Amino acid sequence: MMMDVRTFNKLRTIIKEQSGIELNQNKEALMMGRVGKRMRKLGLPDYKDYLKFLLEDESGQEMIQLLDVISTNVTSFYREAVHFEFLKNLLRSWEDEGQSKYRIWCAAASSGEEPYTIAITVEEALRAKHRDVKILGTDISTVVLEKCVTATYEERKVEPVPRPMLSKYFIRHRDENGDSYEVVPELRSMMLFKRLNLTVQPYPMKGPLDIIFCRNVMIYFNNETRQKIINEMYRLIKPGGYLFVGHSESLTGLDTRFRIIKPSIYQRPD
């Protein structure tokens, strides 16, 4: 069954208005596949019926479900690993200067691999026992945030984690379905996970934040939306704090006072 043009365009518009995610004309197959998951779940026969259901749902829950299936959640432990090496050295330099309180925000937490890699890096970098570390992980998808809270991963998911880190920061569980790995309580105690739509400003955090990871998410937004996101992050980051974006992203073309340190790493000037 095909999706008619009017329904496709209406859903595209709704998704952009609600999340900032832009789906162009060549994303029809993607839209059909992902909306189809919701239709099967709801027992709806065609895409027009789904659109009607979405528009008539006053609770707003179906909008959340739609954005969950549309959101692309590609992630892994130690993805773009050079960022974590930079982070480790940065944290050690701040510790040497006497800093003991750290606030880090992972703005596209997905299923938790990135924020937990940040947490492992923090543990490995900081040598002082008495320190105050909080890591906020946000995402628009409630489904992946539930995985963050569960903090348990299949064996294939933890393959990028170095063996010493795996044995130190994960608890292995064995059952008939194979091995799974649960993040240790020491790391989980640093974390707070919340649903957040990056296109809705101002953000509820007070700041100032030492570091923001906003990687591989702004590629889905237009320049106007990117500009608003960057403005908010500039407001929240402390002078001398850092912003990490994905290797395929940059702030080129945006009006920003961030200073580029390395490709995909930016600093708010002191």
Q: CATH architecture of the largest domain, please?
A: 3-Layer(aba) Sandwich
Q: Name the CATH superfamily assignment of the largest domain.
A: Vaccinia Virus protein VP39
Largest sheet: 7 strands, mixed
The percent range for strand residues is 15-25%
Uncertain segments are: none
Number of strands: 10
Shape by Cα distribution: globular
Cross-sheet strand order for the largest sheet: 6-2-1-7-8-10-9
CATH topology of the largest domain: Rossmann fold
Order of helices and strands: HHHHHEHEHEHEEHEEHEEE
Distance between termini? Answer: 57 Å
Please give the radius of gyration in angstroms. 20 Å
Short characterization:
The chain has 270 residues and is α/β, with parallel strands linked by helices. It has 10 helices and 10 strands. The strands form 2 sheets. The protein has a 7-stranded mixed sheet with strand order 6-2-1-7-8-10-9.
Task: Outline the structure in words.
The chain has 270 residues and is of the alpha/beta class. The protein folds into two domains: 5-70, Chemotaxis Receptor Methyltransferase Cher, domain 1 (Orthogonal Bundle); 82-267, Vaccinia Virus protein VP39 (Rossmann fold). It is built from ten helices and ten strands. The chain has helices at 5-19, 28-42, 47-56, 61-70, 82-96, 113-125, 142-150, 163-169, 185-188, 223-236, and strands at 101-106, 132-139, 152-154, 170-175, 178-183, 191-195, 209-214, 237-245, 259-262, 265-267. The strands form two sheets. A seven-stranded mixed β-sheet has the order 6-2-1-7-8-10-9. A three-stranded antiparallel β-sheet has the order 3-5-4. Strand 1, helix 6 and strand 2 (132-139) form a beta-alpha-beta unit. Helix 2 crosses helix 4 and helix 5 runs parallel beside helix 6. The radius of gyration is 20 Å and the shape is globular. It starts with a helix and ends with a strand. The model has no long low-confidence stretch (mean pLDDT 92).
